[in-house]
Write a structure and sequence with these properties.
Number of helices of chain A: 9
Order of helices and strands of chain A: HEEEHEEHEHHHEHEHEEHE
CATH architecture of the largest domain in chain A: 3-Layer(aba) Sandwich
Largest sheet of chain B: none
CATH superfamily of the largest domain in chain A: P-loop containing nucleotide triphosphate hydrolases
Number of helices of chain B: 17
Oligomer: heterodimer
Bound molecules: adenosine-5'-diphosphate, magnesium ion
Shape of chain B: globular
Number of strands of chain A: 11
Structural class of chain A: alpha/beta
Radius of gyration of chain B: 24 Å
Number of domains of chain A: 2
CATH architecture of the largest domain in chain B: Orthogonal Bundle
Distance between the termini of chain A: 28 Å
Radius of gyration of chain A: 19 Å
Shape of chain A: globular
Distance between the termini of chain B: 23 Å
Chain lengths: ~260, ~450
């Protein structure tokens, strides 16, 4: 407790709102994240999780709300701005350029250049082999366009890209959806390691089992609103399920605007 | 788990394929040659041989091949830009009209405007006219690109409008009057005996090209060795180098045994530039300047497409526009730059064709947009976006031009020529889609 009040939150999203043609995809949502913390963002499909974090990653423009990073008001109008703040994102759709190879995807937008200003493909491939080796040691298909890869391999590429550039804030939107148990365990290990390096992580899932053991806190969304947030040590899985399904906030949680008023 | 089974299946299919690989298959694998490109070159050779047979040996002559290379140059230049445009899922229907308009501007600049300030036959005339043309081409491309990328009007519509606008504008410049003749230096860009670099220079260019091929293979190998990546077998590298050099030197040889027409030799003798009996003097043309221009454009564009950030973004944008945006790339500016490049290439193509005709006419470049698009598509550029090569498009341009000049040699009527070209285009794209499906 004393730790949380003492340190400044890494990210604070305050009163975020966005609507698409009258649908309030995200409605007055506030979440925060501390350094070295994993916050699980939970909720049914369509709850607004992806939309909320896409505002943070610069993919969407919010209608309302403020983003504070290190306590200061941040300006995030596009993905470039977000990357400038050290925010890296693994999108649910992976957002890979299918027709180019793994190294090209890892370095897309941040290519390594030779002293003559041309692409240093060999150096990028070397680094790609190193990073992918850490995530997926059997991966060998560095010459193929990523559309030729399996779902799991593609997901590894998306994860590798996010951790390649010393992120301070990592957003992982359903990062293990296409992975088998072995790779999922590898990603869990990776999350713990990144956390120990002081990186703040938003871990998004529609499935509580994916995140409960890894997360320090959970934030639950329903119909675009935050039902509540809770430290995982203060609630159990059934209570969180109640938040996800019914929108009912248990005693151990801090209710948000979306909590069921009883 | 998924991944585990996955890599296992690929492994088993790999080994299964390995044992099935024929000599040809092993050869292609070792040399990493692009089978699609090989198919296209095969088709080109087939077209050449068939035309040679049906025209009674008129096609595969130094004279015809040399002419073919010159006629291909202008469309080949534009096709290199069309690749980038189609790769990003756009289209440019206006290139023929832009060529016509820019050609007219360059002609008026050198034949009517510049002489009043710097006189006729000024050594700077050609470069000023060319610079004006390139600036105008770039401005037109920038306008197209801006409307497409920043105002969100589809490229098809913008360039369809451009097709009409620039053809009309070309007429407007001189009220439909043909402008001629061109500056004598400017005309060198169009080829002809004077617009060719001669035998010795051609051999030198050929040898430099061979040296570059060898240097590229060696440095590529050294780079991969440095990072301990898999290497191609030495015999395969040697074969590729030898093949490249053979093709280059062969092309130079053919250009060099196409001799000046006797009339031009006589004129040179009369003017005291040559001595001797006209029938005994053989002066080879060598490589034509427009062909050199097209090759240089091809090299620069290949470099842009494969070695620079810009090129990487072009292909990523074609593969997944949303992902490219999310990667923080300014996709609108990339799109606008592509159209600026296309405008510049139209200007270069306009210079070649105006110089070759020694005039700028109202109808210049009519239907060139279709030849250019066809060249890019036959050359392996996928209309679905994300796939295409500059070299392929240039060979595609050569295929289109070969068809046309072959039919002219055989004396086919123009309407029939159009029918054949149209049918060939459809068949080529159909074969290509079969090939791509077989690949997956
Ligand atoms: N680009 C968009 N245009 C229109 N509606 C959208 C868009 N993105 C998301 N939505 C809508 O917003 C809501 C929340 O979606 P999303 O954030 O993807 O949910 P989650 O990630 O929690 O499953 C859904 O109703 C979805 O249809
Ligand atoms: Mg989602």
């Amino acid at each position: 407790m004393s730790l949380e009040t003492a340190t400044q939150p890494l990210v604070e999203m305050r009163n975020m709102s966005i609507s698409f043609g009258g649908i309030h995809a995200v409605d007055d949502a506030s979440v925060d994240l501390n350094p070295g913390e994993v916050v699980g963002l939970l909720g049914h499909n369509g709850a607004g999780k992806s939309t909320l974090i896409k505002i943070l990653s610069g993919a969407y423009q919010r209608d309302n709300g403020e983003i504070h990073i290190d306590g200061e008001l941040a300006t995030i109008n596009n993905p470039r701005d977000a990357k400038g703040y050290g925010i890296e994102t693994i999108y649910q759709t992976l957002a890979l350029a299918d027709n180019v190879d793994t190294a090209a995807n890892l370095y897309l937008g941040r290519e390594l250049l030779t002293p003559w200003g041309t692409l240093d493909d060999v150096a990028m491939e070397a680094k790609a082999r190193e990073v992918m080796g850490r995530l997926n040691p059997r991966f060998q298909r560095f010459k193929d366009p990523v559309k030729a890869l399996s779902g799991g391999q593609r997901q590894s590429v998306a994860i590798a890209r996010a951790i390649l550039f010393n992120a301070r804030i990592l957003i992982m939107d359903e990062p293990t959806a296409a992975l088998g148990p072995e790779e999922t365990a590898q990603v869990s290990e990776l999350i713990l390691q990144l956390k120990s390096e002081g990186i703040g992580i938003f871990l998004i899932s529609h499935d509580i089992h994916d995140v409960f053991d890894l997360a320090d806190r959970v934030a639950v969304m329903k119909n675009g609103q935050v039902v509540g947030t809770a430290r995982t040590q203060d609630v159990d899985k059934d209570e969180v399920l109640g938040m996800i399904i019914l929108g009912k906030c248990p005693p151990g949680a801090t209710p948000g605007p979306g909590a069921l008023s009883s | 788990m998924t991944d585990h089974t996955d890599s296992q299946t690929t492994q088993t299919t790999d080994t299964a394929r390995q044992s099935e690989l024929s000599v040809v298959g092993r050869f292609i694998k070792a040399t990493e040659l692009d089978t699609r490109m090989l198919g296209m070159i095969g088709a080109l050779l087939l077209i050449w041989i068939l035309f040679d047979i049906f025209s009674g040996g008129l096609f595969l002559t130094p004279r015809n091949l040399w002419n073919l290379s010159v006629q291909t140059a202008s469309v080949a230049v534009m096709a290199t830009g069309m690749v980038l445009i189609i790769v990003t899922r756009n289209i440019d229907l206006s290139v023929g009209s832009v060529l016509g308009f820019v050609g007219m501007i360059m002609a008026v600049t050198q034949a009517e405007i510049l002489p009043t300030y710097i006189g006729f036959d000024n050594p700077f005339t050609w470069i000023i006219a060319l610079a004006v043309g390139i600036a105008v081409g770039a401005a037109i491309g920038a306008l197209h690109g801006y409307v497409i990328a920043y105002m969100g009007v589809p490229a098809f519509i913008v360039t369809l409008g451009g097709l009409l606008v620039w053809r009309g504008a070309a007429w407007w410049v001189t009220s439909g009057r043909t402008v001629a003749p061109m500056d004598s230096n400017f005309r060198l860009m169009g080829g002809g005996p004077a617009g060719s670099i001669g035998e010795i220079a051609s051999w030198i260019v050929g040898l430099i090209a061979c040296a570059a091929i060898v240097a590229m293979i060696v440095s590529g190998r050294r780079q991969r060795k440095r990072f301990q990546f898999p290497l191609r077998p030495v015999w395969a590298e040697t074969f590729l180098g030898a093949l490249g050099c053979f093709l280059v030197l062969g092309a130079v040889y053919i250009a060099n045994i196409y001799y000046w027409p006797i009339g031009i030799v006589r004129r040179h003798i009369q003017a005291g530039l040559l001595e001797g009996e006209a029938t005994t003097i053989f002066i080879g043309h060598g490589v034509a300047i427009p062909v050199l221009v097209a090759i240089c454009v091809g090299i620069v564009m290949t470099f842009l497409a494969t070695r620079t950030r810009f090129g990487r973004y072009v292909f990523a944008l074609g593969g997944n526009p949303e992902a490219t945006d999310l990667a923080g790339i300014n996709t609108r500016w990339v799109t606008m730059k592509i159209f600026i490049i296309m405008g510049v290439l139209c200007a270069i193509a306009a210079a070649i064709s105006t110089a070759r005709l020694n005039a700028a006419t109202n109808a210049q470049g009519t239907l060139d947009e279709l030849l250019t698009i066809a060249a890019a598509v036959i050359g392996g550029t996928s209309l679905a976006g994300g796939v295409g090569t500059i070299a392929g498009a240039m060979i595609g341009a050569l295929v289109m031009q070969s068809l046309q000049s072959g039919m002219v040699l055989m004396g086919l009527d123009t309407p029939l020529q159009n029918i054949v070209v149209g049918v060939v285009l459809v068949i080529a794209v159909w074969l290509d889609s079969l090939y791509r499906r077989a690949q997956h």
